UniProtKB/TrEMBL annotation:
Pfam families: Ald_Xan_dh_C, CO_deh_flav_C, FAD_binding_5, Fer2_2, MoCoBD_1, MoCoBD_2. Binds 1 Mo-molybdopterin (Mo-MPT) cofactor per subunit. Binds 2 [2Fe-2S] clusters. Residues 171-349 form the FAD-binding PCMH-type domain. Substrate binds at F856. Keywords: 2Fe-2S, FAD, Flavoprotein, Iron, Iron-sulfur, Metal-binding, Molybdenum, Oxidoreductase. [2Fe-2S] cluster 1 binds at C20. Its cofactor is Mo-molybdopterin; FAD; [2Fe-2S] cluster. This is Aldehyde oxidase 1. The keyword Aminoacyl-tRNA synthetase does not apply. GO terms for molecular function: 2 iron, 2 sulfur cluster binding; FAD binding; iron ion binding; oxidoreductase activity. The keyword Metal-binding applies.
């Protein structure tokens, strides 16, 4: 949080901000408060920290401090915030942790600060929905928020602001000079002297360019302290706002103006406010400037089209001359007339983005129309589009042609035709999505037409307006406003009334490190303090997808300041490659590179900045090799033979078959053939790849502090590359800030690179990847193409299926072969298919190697299976749920992979889900809604799931633990589990506590079904202590331990689980989540529920939002949160109901524990198929009855183009007419 003091008004302002964007030079005279400053466990924790932790708002904890400070800054300004303010404050935080945490509890903890009467009622409703037999938390235990106990603004900064004269500040860095003038005159002189120097206020544009694109500026000028650029002046005909005013200030000023001025004078203001609500997050708006958005965002600015269409004047200044206005230079085509707002004027803004909030627009618009008084005759018309060209584009000719026309459908048709003709967008336009963006252009125009028509109260029956009757009016406005109902529902897990209070099974227990997460005291890899003479490492990666390395020139890099050495493949003491399967994983590329992002060498320097600067100076010479294969579409198309010729597959190919498939196809009534594409997914763990290697001074020993899921694998890889026994390498993992499968092989390679550097230099070496490099170097979830042929009867029964799966494995095998196996083993999902043949192939491409990811293949194969289920329903005339129910496992029998399955829980889940969700009632309501609404549709879907838990190789499931009791009664547990947010340390800790106090009532609940090794060790100790306890039953725990020690009883025990691969012992986890895309919240043993919640939301991202994009040369475009969108607060279902099946036993796991974290992700596809259902309703209403398939992710573009209508047809006609062959 940053705090400022205004000496004139004597006001103090508090603002949350992104630390990664704030240059230290910009903080002169500003107070900075971090999460450590507001509270800690050593003194006193703050009420915000307490609530977030105790309300179960933290799991992996890496992003928890950001949540805390967002709410804290809000409360410093508004001690009694409204629900809207809370939602706005949290919407700006990057919710990476959503995918692993109970995100619903973050807003929950904030609600307890609400005081106003209306909000009190809403909170009462919210709390009522939380009432269950077992409380999640006790609000009475929370310490009150006492604003008198907060830190005051530093008096010395107040005195400096009031007494010291303003002077130009100049900060000289190693390569860059920062200049902050105090007057407009001085600014113009500086700009004349340094014409290429950027002007920086919020650093939201220049900063990312410098960090991620390597842009270098010798001089940076900051005009933030110039009073003339911070002016806010109210005038009779509008507002004057300084260019350095923050967007948050602009939003507050406009909100105040709207509340005070007459409605007819604030139409432009309200349109701007609508755009500002979704422009970045609160943290961005607090520092980003109005002038910066206008100038730097160019085409993607959400404000420029509205400012242009509203005839706003842009005042520009140059040395010796002031130009007023100069709007045509910045916003070409702006009309020159300016009208005073009257009741016949209408202004609106529209935008479409990959995500509703904190996402740059794909396209946007500002539209304004002025009518002659008391008529619908157009007097003036303005249309500006953003996201279409290099700057905001005015449809000037179209607007001129429509002046004098009546506001009717004939005018609308003509406007659409003219706009498409005037605003050109060629097929090769930057950014792609040409047809979609052109469709948006006229869709925006149509929305504006409806808004104005409604306001004119001239609703007429037409093919366009069947939506617009009675409830349809409200629907449109809700659609535009994007209102959210914060409602949450819980279903409690049953807990035995006789269960002891200290027994945690089934109870909501706060995360063991929850308080430390909230205070910032929880340590992650990069929080480890600097080691003496520590060096920093930056990797040099390939810029070519497939090429021979001709030369490596490191001379300039070695001369760079701070550089200690450069590490290449020649410095690897032993093996430069590591085998998981037949093809190796490579540490340093030697003779050729196989993908963009492959590591070639590394620079070691005295600072991270110096290392990165020097790495950019390493020159690599390439000779392009053929072929360059980037996508599996190439491999599965007509040139499949060419791919085979070039050996573009990793072996072996996997196949499974049961029954007589060919014979069954001869007997079926109908055959369905199709193909579906499923895109990849980035892990997007909050903590990027991190490693610190500390060499010891003897025997080539090394300590490796690393963020990984698999320390034993890291140990093996590092030992292999160094040529030392594994016992010389000690891996340390305290906790991991998210992983999802992405911190195994990739982490091993990076740890090995750092270890080689440490071995060569003799110094500790730290390697922390930034987000862009992390996404470039590492792979994610496998993109898959599924081809299927399914034979079924007219009653919906499936008799035969033949499926082929092609995975994009990337340049090395990694875990791709295992993923291909899982795809086959789980492709049947919940269905009995008597005759089945399937095979999977891993395609070798010139992209970074894809790897393990939450769900491990099932999210892809399951979606393909459910897609053909949906298509069979459409082809047979049955409902999708009927087809699914007909084909579900019904009786105990063997699956096609020879595992005995009892489907009792599957059937129970299905029936309970239908009943609890009132599925059929909702379906009727959805159908009725769709009949009454032409332009807005709802969908509903219910998806079953069978998730076999475990691995097909026994050794992958083995585990061990050591439990040691010290003489003071404390207990040490050593185990191989990794704390990644799932609460494993909490679970172990409570097991030990129970063992210490009531050994005869040992209980354990875990998300891992094979943790019996832990129980085994505790039971061994119990047996050893039983004679002592029986002799002194009233003794204390310490008495028993002391006596055991004196009797020389071994107080250490090991537990071991050797793994299980027998089909009869492999546990089967069946989970059902009912979701109708409106949904929210959880309960029960809270970590398990949060795992389901987070996995589901991550599934929403996979199936509807997250899209990886590459250039034709294989360079990843989506290398950060600006381009790659994961679900945020605005994307969370509004009602979320999770039920755990009651009285369900799992005899193969500790106390019927269940694997929650993996299975829930696939259930996110229920949103995918609910959208499919809505699209089906659209197409059916428009007479489009032919079969169709939707690919994943089901982005706004794919949804819109699948909903064919008059506008998409118009775009296609004009597009193909204007596109040369």
């Amino acid at each position: 949080m940053i705090s400022t003091y205004e000496p004139v008004s004597k006001k103090i302002g508090h603002y949350s901000a992104n630390a990664c964007l704030l240059p230290i030079c910009s903080l002169h005279g500003i107070a900075v408060t971090t999460v450590e400053g507001i509270g800690c466990t050593k003194t006193r924790i703050h009420p915000v920290q307490e609530r977030l932790a105790k309300c179960h708002g933290s799991q992996c904890g890496f992003c928890t401090p950001g949540m805390v400070m967002s709410v804290y800054a809000l409360l410093r300004n508004h001690p009694e915030p409204s629900m809207e303010q809370i939602a706005s404050a949290l919407a700006g935080t990057f919710l990476f942790q959503l995918t692993s945490m109970g995100f619903r509890f973050i807003p929950c903890n904030s609600f307890f600060f609400i005081k106003n009467e209306l909000s009190k009622k809403l909170v009462c409703l919210f709390v009522c929905l939380l009432k269950t037999p077992i409380k999640l938390f006790s609000a009475d235990e929370f310490q009150p928020l006492d604003t008198t106990q907060e830190f005051i603004f530093p008096p010395e900064l107040m005195r400096m602001a009031e007494n010291e004269p303003k002077r130009t500040l100049v900060f000289h860095g190693e390569r860059t000079t920062w200049i902050s003038p105090t007057s407009l005159k001085e600014l113009l002189e500086l700009k004349a002297k340094y014409p290429k120097a950027p002007l920086v206020v919020g650093n939201t544009s220049v900063g990312p360019d410098m960090k991620f694109k390597g842009v270098y500026h010798p001089v940076i000028i900051s005009p933030a302290r110039i009073l003339d650029l911070n002016v806010v002046r109210y005038m009779d005909n509008g507002l004057t706002l300084g260019a350095a005013c923050s967007l948050a200030l602009v939003k507050d000023v406009l909100t105040n103006a709207v509340s005070e001025l007459p409605w007819e004078k604030t139409k432009i203001f309200r349109a701007l406010l609508q755009q500002l609500k979704t422009l970045g997050g609160q943290q961005i708006r607090n520092i980003a400037s109005l002038g910066g958005n206008i100038i730097s965002r160019k085409s993607t600015s959400d404000l420029n089209p509205i400012l242009a269409v509203g005839n706003c004047i842009l005042n520009l200044a140059s040395r010796g001359k002031r130009q007023d206005p100069c709007k045509k230079a910045a916003l070409p085509g702006m009309p020159s007339k300016c009208y005073i707002s009257v009741h016949e004027e209408f202004v609106s803004a529209f935008r479409q983005a990959q995500r509703r909030e904190n996402s740059l627009p794909i396209a946007n618009t500002g539209m304004r129309v002025l009518f002659a008084e008391d008529t619908d005759i157009i007097m003036d018309f303005g249309i500006f589009y953003g996201g279409i060209g290099s700057t905001s584009i005015c449809a000037k000719q179209t607007c001129q042609a429509l002046i004098g026309r009546h506001w009717n459908e004939k005018m609308l048709d003509e406007a659409c035709r003219l706009v498409l003709k005037e605003v050109s967008l060629t097929g090769s336009a930057p950014g792609g999505k040409v047809e979609y963006r052109r469709t948006l252009m006229i869709s925006f125009l149509f929305k504006f037409y409806l808004e104005v028509l409604q306001s004119l109260k001239k609703m007429v029956n037409s093919c366009y307006l069947s939506i617009f009757m009675q409830s349809g009016k409200r629907t449109l406005w809700l659609f535009f406003l994007g209102l959210v109902a914060w409602m949450s529902f819980f279903t409690e897990q049953e807990v035995n009334p006789e269960q002891l209070p200290q027994d945690p099974v089934g109870r909501p227990i706060m995360h063991q490190a929850g308080i430390k997460h909230a205070t910032g005291e929880a340590l992650y890899c990069d929080d480890i303090r600097a080691v003496d003479e520590e060096l920093f490492l930056a990797v040099v990666t390939s810029s070519r997808a497939h090429a021979k390395i001709v030369s490596i020139d490191t001379s300039e890099a070695l001369r760079a300041p701070g550089v200690f050495d450069i590490v290449t493949t020649q410095d690897v003491p032993a093996k430069n490659e590591f085998y998981i399967f037949s093809d190796p994983e490579i540490l340093f590329a030697k003779d050729k590179v196989n993908c963009v992002g492959q590591i070639i060498c590394a620079v070691v320097a005295d600072s991270e900045v110096h290392a990165k600067q020097a790495a950019a100076k390493v020159k690599i010479g390439y000779e392009t090799l053929e072929p360059v294969i980037l996508t599996i579409e190439v491999i599965t198309s007509l040139i499949l033979l060419e791919a085979i010729q070039h050996n573009s597959f990793f072996e072996p190919q996997r196949k499974l078959e049961q029954g007589n498939v060919d014979e069954a196809f001869e007997t079926v009534d109908q055959i369905l053939e199709g193909e579906i594409h499923i895109g990849g997914q980035e892990h997007f763990y909050m903590e990027t790849q991190s490693v610190l290697v500390v060499p010891k001074r003897e025997d080539k020993e090394m300590d490796v502090y690393v963020s990984t899921q698999h320390p034993a694998f890291i140990q093996e890889m590092v030992a292999s590359c160094l040529g030392v026994p594994a016992n010389r390498i000690m891996c340390h993992v305290k906790r991991v800030g998210g992983a999802f499968g992405g911190k195994v092989v990739n982490t091993g390679l990076l740890a090995s690179v750092a270890a080689v550097a440490a071995n060569k230099t003799g110094h500790a070496v730290r390697l922390i990847l930034d987000r862009g490099d992390d996404m470039l170097i590492t792979g994610g979830r496998h993109p898959v193409i599924g081809k299927y042929k399914v034979g079924f009867m007219n009653d919906g029964r499936i008799l035969a299926a033949d499926a082929k799966y092609y995975l994009n494995g990337g340049s090395t095998p990694d875990h791709s072969i295992l993923v291909a196996e899982v795809i086959l083993l789980k492709m049947d999902n919940a269905y009995k298919i008597p005759n089945l043949r399937c095979c999977s192939r891993v395609c070798k491409t010139n992209l970074p190697s894809n790897t393990a990811f939450r769900g491990f293949g099932f999210p892809q194969s399951g979606l393909i299976t459910e897609s053909w289920m949906t298509s069979i329903a459409a082809k047979s005339g049955l409902s999708p749920e009927k087809v699914r129910e007909i084909n579900m496992y019904k009786e105990t029998e063997q699956t096609f992979y020879k595992q005995e399955l009892d489907p009792e829980n599957l059937v129970r889940c299905w029936k309970e889900c239908i009943e609890k969700s009132a599925y059929y009632s909702r379906k009727i309501a959805v159908e009725e809604f769709n009949k009454q609404n032409y332009w807005k549709k709802k969908g509903i879907a219910i998806i079953p799931m069978k998730y076999p838990f475990g691995f097909n190789k026994r050794f992958l499931s083995q585990a061990a633990a050591l439990v040691h009791i010290y003489t003071d009664g404390s207990v040490l547990l050593t185990h191989g589990g990794i704390e990644m947010g799932q609460g494993i340390l909490l679970l172990f800790n409570h097991t030990i506590k129970i063992a210490n106090i009531h050994l005869s009532f040992l209980s354990f609940s875990s998300i891992f079904p094979n943790l019996s090794f832990h129980q085994d060790a505790c039971q061994t100790l119990l047996k050893r202590l039983e004679p002592i306890i029986s002799k002194n039953p009233k003794g204390s725990w310490n008495d028993w331990v002391k006596e055991a020690f004196e009797q020389s009883i071994n107080l250490s025990a090991t537990g071991y689980f050797r793994g299980e691969c027998s089909p009869k012992r492999e546990s089967l986890i069946i989970s059902m989540l009912y979701i109708f895309y409106n949904i929210k919240k959880v309960k029960v043993f809270i970590i398990s529920h949060s795992q389901i919640e987070g996995a589901f939301v991550q599934g929403i991202g996979l199936y509807t939002m997250e899209e990886l994009k590459y250039s034709p040369e294989g360079v990843l475009y989506t290398r950060g949160p600006a381009q790659y969108k994961i679900p945020a607060v605005c994307d969370i279902p509004e009602q979320f109901s999770i039920s755990l099946l009651s009285s369900s036993q799992n005899s193969y796991a500790i106390y019927s524990s269940k694997g929650m974290g993996e299975a829930g992700l696939f259930l996110g596809c229920s949103v995918f198929f609910a959208i499919w259902d809505a699209v089906t309703a659209v197409r059916k209403e428009r007479g489009l009855t032919e079969p169709f398939t939707l690919n994943s992710p089901l982005t706004p573009e794919r949804i819109r183009m699948a909903c064919a209508d008059e506008f998409t047809e118009m775009v296609m006609r004009v597009f193909f007419w204007n596109t040369p062959l």
